[in-house]
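Lay summary

Proteins are chains of building blocks that fold into shapes. Our project writes down both the chain and a compact code for its shape. Here are two examples, one after the other.
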Amino acid sequence: MRMTKIRVSVLAALFVGCLVLPSQLVFSQETDQPHPEVPPAGDALQVTLGRDSPNLGGNVFRDAFLSFTLSNAPGIATGKIISDISFPSSEGIAFERAELTPDVEAAGATLEIEVAEGEEASEAGEEGAELPPDLEASGAPVEIEMAGEEEASEAGEEGETAQEEGATSRVKITISNDKGLPDGIIANLVFKITKEFTFEEVGTDEHLITLDNSVSAWATDEKEITDVMGEPGGIDLAYAPVVFACLFYMH
């Protein structure tokens, strides 16, 4: 009888360990990836953009949320940060909004946002409409051959596509506080997915869109901080399926 009771007790314990205690279950999803390791900044001021995976599966995407994290330089009170964030316009994402964290906003910090979409494409189009300076100065006659309506339409569509592929979207984030900015997450940025991606386009492997981050900073006494680092962020569009596992069987 004792052996039977012991066996029943062991089986009951296993059953409780795997089904009753939710704290012993692991909810693992690749979208909840830790941020890539950032090299130590040393004595430099560092601003790091976060990383997010907004693919919910079935070609459904939520907004992407990226943290904006400040690591102050030792002994320097940072009064102003300008972060110039850029990414290809053709990648299918667009800046939505940015917000200061409640504690930073309550401390008196201000946030300014400037957005420029397709900057390089627009400039390239304007420059392409001008004659070279030496040819214009020579006064030589210029012949213009008018294409047919169909050819002109095709050329226009190809030109627009080429410009979109070469265009860069920029977001300039300026955060200021004459009392100083704290270490840690001081703002959060939100990006929306503007393109309808197919599963074949994004797959389950990493499909990372990199957001470059160029940073300038000034101390509370308005002197520029020269030793600064900007770490890029990322939005991974790949779909990462959810995996459940029981810790008992993993040990």
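And here is the second example, written the same way.
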Amino acid sequence: MTNENVNIWIWLQNGKIVKAILNKDLGTLKIYNENDTLILKRTGLKIIEIKEIEKCIIRYGAKKLDKHAEPFKFL
């Protein structure tokens, strides 16, 4: 995922790792649990809605993964 408009967020919720992938170009949100099982998918989101979702995710203490970082380096 080297797309400039794709952001990957990781956070702990109820003691479990959660991952969110937000794509501004496609207007999609995908949330996965620690087993990489898709638990929520939203499509047709506007850019303003994606920004609001990112603000909510940040309140959970999420960390945005660097596009060039190795997976799970933040742990």
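What can we say about the second shape? Residues 6-62 form one domain.
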